[in-house]
């Protein structure tokens, strides 16, 4: 129900002209996909048919390029776009994530429910419960190359001091014929 009302609020922002309609459509599609994936997994957990996926690495030729996401990025981006319309739903999501039944559901399928929930929490700037927080990936330590010390700049030779006497250059630019 929360996502339905959040979608209605975003749609209203588009109708009054505060958000561009193509952006509203993208946001509504994203909210719909979050709702469907969460509901599908929650129904499998409730029916007792949920089994966590087993990870089997597949050999790949190389890293696939990621498709560019047309939606904004960053923390609380939906709140920044429409703060009056979405702030109440962020508060409702915080309240929902503190509920014991929701925590029990998240404990039953933390990896599968974590992905759509992380996306929704990022949209609204809500802190994730620790059970669905993404694992911290350890980055391989690579030694930083020491910056090479730049060589001392070459000193320019001082040009010969030139004076002008009665409009003539002294010393003359070419040697005097003897």
Main beta-sheet strand count, sense and barrel state: 2 strands, antiparallel
Mean pLDDT: 81
Strands of the widest sheet, in order across it, are 1-2
How big a fraction of the residues is strand?
Answer: under 5%
Series of H and E elements = HHHHHHEE
The shape, in one word, is: elongated
Task: Compile the SSE list and pairings.
Blueprint: H1 2-15, H2 21-47, H3 77-81, H4 83-97, H5 100-108, H6 110-124, E1 163-165, E2 168-170
Antiparallel strand pairs: 1-2
Helix pairs in contact: 1-2, 1-4, 2-6
Descriptive account of the structure:
This protein is mainly alpha-helical. It has a domain at 2-50 and 76-124. 48% of the residues lie in helices and 3% in strands. It contains 6 helices and 2 strands. The chain has helices at residues 2-15, 21-47, 77-81, 83-97, 100-108, 110-124, and strands at residues 163-165, 168-170. A two-stranded antiparallel sheet has the order 1-2. Helix 1 (2-15) runs antiparallel to helix 4 (83-97) and helix 2 (21-47) runs antiparallel to helix 6. It starts with a helix and ends in an 8-residue tail after the last strand. The model has no long low-confidence stretch (mean pLDDT 81).
Briefly characterize the structure.
The chain has six helices and two strands. The chain is mainly alpha-helical. The protein starts with a helix and ends in an 8-residue tail after the last strand.
